[in-house]
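ping. complex inputs:
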Amino acid sequence: MSEGQIKKFMYVNRKAPHGTIYALESLEVVLIAAAFDQDVSLAFLDDGVYQLKKGWNTKGIEVKSFQPTYRALDDYDINKLYVEKEALEARGLTEDDMCVPVEVLSRTEIGKLMETQDIVLSF
Amino acid sequence: MAIEVNGKSYETDEEGYLVDLNEWNEDVAKILAEQENVNMTDQHWEVINFLREYYNEFQIAPAVRVLTKAIGKKLGAEKGNSQYLYELFPYGPAKQACKIAGLPKPTGCV
Amino acid sequence: MLHIVNKSPLDRNSLDTCLATAQGGSLLLIEDGVYAATNDNAAAGKLKQAMGQLKVYALKPDLEARGMADRVLDGVNLVDYGGFVDLVTEHATCQSWL
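pong. complex structure:
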């Protein structure tokens, strides 16, 4: 889209999916910003790993499930999804519980990746 | 706002997008297309049906770039380019086609 | 009395304060609070311990919405919205640990 220099963007997600609006807001910003063809990665830390826990059935709480939209990220050329290993363990989750392909990294490794970014967006 | 189709009223938002996408049917699409001055052909329907399938699967209306790529993958390279899509929907494939398909305005589309 | 917790145990201290304060009665987990009632969650141990003096409930639609309904901790009673209302009416007082 623009001829400008490609920057490294990281979206840091730390909230569970339904209790607050952060998860949905983050996902929408990611999709909108995808138009700018930047080098995008998504990091899921702490309760943020719950955003990718597969098998949501939101009928009972009467909200639209935005889980299928995570599967569209690949169409937007967003395929660097990092999930915090310690966060999965503290929640009884494994990589198999994730609804999209992810890379599981330790908190330290994610911290190092954060240091390499031009822009970090916090949700 | 609302549109009238076969004696039934369908609610639309201030920009003419259908409020409840479950109410959509082909007759509604035809009226929406008329309002957009789009003459529906088989090629138009192909894109509309593709958009509805995409929305069912991912719960979003895709951005133009994504739509173009996905259509190319499914319907062939001669259709997977923005020129083809803009010929069918001159005011923007994402905006106009989404409206006719009964979908919300694509995320990030102003 | 009825205690209600709606925050994730690994994000806020609502559950900790609730468990440290509660003197018996019932605990209902709703919204992000339901994560406490799932297997191998880091907070599951203290919840199990609390079951000795608190009857623990979790709102099923909230577990389902989060994809966690298939891994509920033993001893947790699942309720729907009707059950939520029943719990509120059965108890004289109610504290929400927001």
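The longest helix of chain B spans residues 42-58.
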